[in-house]
Amino acid sequence: MAPPRFQCLNMVRQITKKGLNVKAAFSTSHASRFGTLESHDQLPPLTPVNSTALDEPPRARGTTEDLMDLFPQRSAATPKMQQPASQITLGSGVVTADAPVGNQRVYNLIRKSKVRADERKQAMRRSSAATEDYTNHLRGQDLSKQITRRWKVGDIYAPHDLSEVEMAKWKRRGKPLYDVFDVLNLNPMEHYRNFSIMSEYMTEMGRIRHSKDTGLRPVNQRKIARAIRRTIGMGLMPSVHQHPEILYKEVQRYEQNTAFKAHDAPTGIM
C-alpha cells in the first residue's frame, strides 16, 4: 500500500483528468488554478517551497475573477445582436417586409387617424376663413350704404362734407328721366297689393306724388294713382302716413347709421 502522500497525489491526478467539479471551480486554493491548463494528463512540476513563502499569507483571489477565466474573452470583432425584423416603430412610420400582419394593421389605423385629423383641421380652417370673409363682406356692405355721395379721384373735401347734414343733401333724388313701368314692361294696376311699390309714389303724409317727381307718362301716372286709391280703400295701406313696415325699416336704418343710440339716452327722473 502506497504512503498517504502518494494516495493524495493519485486523487488529485484523477480530478484533473475528469475536469474540475463545482467545489473546485469556486475554490480559491492553489489547486483550482491548475484546472485552467489545456493539458490535464500531466501535473505541473513541483517547485521547492521556501520557508519565507510559507510565512507570507496567501493572496485571496475574488470569485468573479475565477468565473471570468472560465469564459472566453469577447473580441471587438464579434457582431452585436441585431433587432429582430418583426419589431417596428409606429411613431417613425417604418414597417419592414417581415413585420407581422397585426403590427401592420395597427400602423395603418394610426396613419389613417392622423390623416383624418389633418383633414378635419383643414376643413375647420377653411370654414373659419369663409365665415370671416362673409362677415367682412356684410360689414363693408353696411358701410357702403351709409355713403350717399360717390367720391371720384381728385375730389377735394373737408371734414364738414362728411357730416350727416351734408350727406342728407346727396340723398335727394333727382327727377327721373325714363318711365319705370315702360322700361320694365309692368302694369301698375296689377301690383296694387305690393305696398313697397305703392309707397314709392306716395309722400310721407299719404299724398300721391306729382308726375314731375315720378317721371311717369300720363297714362301710367293715372294707373298708379288709381292703384294707390284702391290699396287705401281695401285697407292695405294707411291714408295719412307710410306703411308700418316701411316706417320700421327706416327706424332700423337710422339706428344703424347714427352714432346716438336710444338705450344710451337718459331714461328720465323718477
From TrEMBL:
UniProt keyword annotation of Ribosomal protein present? yes
Against InterPro entries, the record matches this protein to: Ribosomal_bS18, Ribosomal_bS18_sf
Q: Which organism is it from?
A: Marssonina brunnea f. sp. multigermtubi (strain MB_m1)
Q: Which Gene3D superfamilies match?
A: Ribosomal protein S18
Could you state a single Gene Ontology molecular function term? Answer: structural constituent of ribosome
GO annotation (BP), single:
mitochondrial translation
Q: Name one GO cellular component term.
A: mitochondrial small ribosomal subunit
Task: Give the UniProt keywords, A-Z.
Answer: Ribonucleoprotein, Ribosomal protein
- Name under which the protein is recorded: Small ribosomal subunit protein bS18m
